Amino acid sequence: MKKTLMALGTMAMLGSTANAQKVAFEEFDLDNGLHVVLHQDDSAPVIITSVMYHVGAKDEQPNRTGFAHFFEHLLFEGTKNIGKGEWFKLVTSNGGNNNANTSDDRTYYYEVFPSNNLELAIWMESERLMHPVIDQKGVDTQNEVVKEEKRLRIDNSPYGNLLKAVKQNMFKVHPYKWTTIGEMEHLDAATLEEFKAFNKKFYIPNNAVLVVAGQFDNAQAKTWIKKYFGAIPKGEPIKRQKFEEAPITTTINATWEDPNVQIPMTVTAYRTPSMKTKDARVLDMISSYLSEGKSSKLYKKMVDEKKVALQVNAFNYSQEDYGTYFIFGLPMGDVTSETLIKEIDEEIVNIQNNLISENDFQKLQNKFENNYVTSNSTVEGIAENLASYYLLYGDINLVNTEIEIYRSITREDIKEVAKKYLNPNQRLILNYGPAKEKTAK
């Protein structure tokens, strides 16, 4: 009976994927190097205009971290033709919404408008690129905004510095060793000329991709894109330094004290390959197998059955150059870090030495088929996927074909990738705990 239900579930999932509409798109380059992608979707009268720039935290200098994230805020300050503080008013008064986000690898801006506001959306993004106003007043204003964000999300948030604690131990030469939000003293020390230089270097059409998605007239969209973006000068080609990390061959042991936590966290982290590789996708599957949902191996064993952990999780933090594979747990009561690591390692060794069951493998396939359908289920999701696959992966067609990579993964691949990357001598063990009370002298 169980096998029958599983087979029916699989057929339903495969059917939904097979019926998922292929993402059609058109792409072309302007003379200034801006890559343009158009995706028409008439299911709703909305349009998304987004621009992704190939600049993130890894493009910063070691003594000027946080610049990429800072610009995510700064470039909403206004432009030559959009007054200070008017950007958001202009968007909302025309029935739209907008946002932006930054990673170590890229910065992404987007607007969502009713479809009759396409020209406005295209003009606004061209203004951000062509006529940004970068002055001391705007820098000072956004400096305070970023500081408050860091206080709320990082400094005063339980486990808020977890990523920083891991990154600074996992990477010795690569800029991934610092966090996206950066250090506030670096922003405080920066001059206005340095901010202007950063903008001039990275915010150029030949370092970006523009995506227009939704309900629009194709010919009209092209006319407006060429009108508003075509006159923007091409920037100097960006020379990117390549950083290569030496392999980790001996366990790294580290600690971090956090005054905002009461329960210590045990973290193991492994350096993994670029998100562009098939191995990165296999690691995604291993993460899901280990800790996604209450029926996952680590959760069921450590939280439900043995009750040694309050929480346990595994995830593959994939990035353009390298990835970091995390497994972390919060102990139950007086359970030690050594006990948590022992329980986690047993499951990893089991994956390395034995093929996972056919039933578990089928569940993984179903999950990733569903993830694929979901990621392309909204126009906003499609727009970001198109930008990411073009700019970061170098293969925009992955918007339709990446699922084939996941489908090609076998149980043997899972076993071999676990053997290749998830070994004790290749990892960081981080004890992230409460701040210790200082003994009075």
From TrEMBL:
Spell out the SUPFAM superfamilies in the cross-references.
LuxS/MPP-like metallohydrolase
**Peptidase M16 N-terminal domain: which residues?**
36-180
Instruction: Tell me which domain of life the UniProt entry assigns to the organism this sequence originates from.
Output: Bacteria
Q: Is Transferase tagged as a keyword?
A: no
Domain Peptidase M16 C-terminal intervals: 190-367
By its UniProt entry, which InterPro entries does this protein fall under?
A: Metalloenz_LuxS/M16 (IPR011249), Pept_M16_N (IPR011765), Peptidase_M16 (IPR050626), Peptidase_M16_C (IPR007863)
Q: Where is the signal peptide?
A: 1-20
Q: Which Pfam families match?
A: Peptidase_M16, Peptidase_M16_C
Q: Which UniProt keywords apply?
A: Hydrolase, Metalloprotease, Protease, Signal, Zinc
Q: Which family does it belong to?
A: Belongs to the peptidase M16 family.
Please identify the protein, giving its name as recorded.
Insulinase family protein
This protein's species is: Flavobacterium bernardetii
Taxonomy, top ranks, is:
Bacteria, Pseudomonadati, Bacteroidota, Flavobacteriia, Flavobacteriales
